[in-house]
């Protein structure tokens, strides 16, 4: 495996006055990062998606997280998982990732800085 990535699960709770707060739970796992194929890029693009990468990791590492962070600090990039593929031949799962505005910089909004 090539890169250490963070799998991020979000949970939502309402406080006493009805505000929704988000709590993130992160898990560090090793994954092999690769480019999406031309066919995947075209098919996803027809459905309004913007595929960027595929992260391949053993199935035991993945528990349905919908956000993946690659890198750390200033170089950290967050991606949304838009599709998965379980490879039964070698017990690995492929996470198909796309960039989305809502997961671009984690809790910080890149437009407002808040």
Quick take:
The protein has 114 residues and is mainly β.
Task: Write a structural description.
- By secondary structure, this protein is mainly beta.
- It is 8% helix and 51% strand.
- The chain is built from one helix and six strands; from the N terminus they run ββαββββ.
- A six-stranded antiparallel β-barrel has the order 1-2-3-6-5-4.
- Strand 5 and strand 6 (92-98) form a beta hairpin.
- It is globular.
- 13% of the residues are buried.
Large-scale geometry? globular
Query: What oligomeric state do these chains adopt?
Result: single chain
Instruction: Provide mean pLDDT, rounded.
Output: 86
Question: How would a crystallographer describe the biggest sheet?
Answer: 6 strands, antiparallel, barrel
Task: Give, in order, the helices and strands.
Answer: EEHEEEE
Helix/strand/pairing class, anyone?
Answer: mainly beta
Distance between the termini: 35 Å
Care to count the β-strands? 6
Rg is 15 Å
Beta-strand residue fraction: over 45%
Major beta sheet, strand line-up: 1-2-3-6-5-4
Number of helices: 1
> Which residues form runs of ≥5 with pLDDT under 50?
107-114
Helix content: under 10%
SSE inventory with pairings:
Layout: E1 3-14, E2 20-35, H1 38-46, E3 51-58, E4 67-70, E5 77-87, E6 92-98
Antiparallel strand pairs: 1-2, 1-4, 2-3, 3-6, 4-5, 5-6
């Amino acid at each position: 495996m090539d890169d250490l990535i963070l799998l991020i699960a979000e949970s939502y709770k309402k406080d006493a006055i009805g505000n929704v707060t988000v709590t993130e739970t992160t898990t560090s796992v090793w994954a092999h990062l690769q480019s999406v194929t031309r066919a995947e890029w075209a098919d996803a693009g027809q459905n309004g998606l913007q595929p960027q990468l595929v992260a391949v990791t053993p199935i035991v590492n993945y528990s349905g997280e919908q956000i993946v962070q690659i890198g750390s600090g200033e170089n950290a990039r967050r991606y949304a998982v838009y599709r998965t593929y379980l490879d039964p031949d070698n017990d690995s799962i492929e996470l198909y990732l796309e960039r989305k505005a809502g997961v671009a910089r984690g809790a910080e909004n890149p437009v407002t800085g808040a």
